[in-house]
Amino acid sequence: MSADTPSHPLIETSVSAVIDGQLTYRGIPVQEIVEHGDFATTAWLLWHGALPTSAEQGELASSLAAAWDLPREMTTRLRALPPTTPILTVLRDAIATVELASPRPWASSSGSGSPTDPLRLLGMLPNVAALWHHIAAGRPHFAPRVEGSPAARLLHALRGEAPSDAEARALDRALILYADYGLAASTLAVRVAAAAEASLPTALITALCVVSGPLHGDVLDQIAQFLADIPAPNEAPRAVEPLLRLGLLPPGFAAPADPRTAPFRRLAAAPGRGPWLKVADAVADAVHTRTGCTPTADLYAAVLLNGLGIPRDLAPAIFALGRAAGWIAHALEQQADNRFAPPTARYIGPPVTAWPTRRARP
Question: Where are any strands of DSSP class E within the chain?
Answer without folding.
Answer: 16-19, 22-25, 28-29, 253-254, 294-295
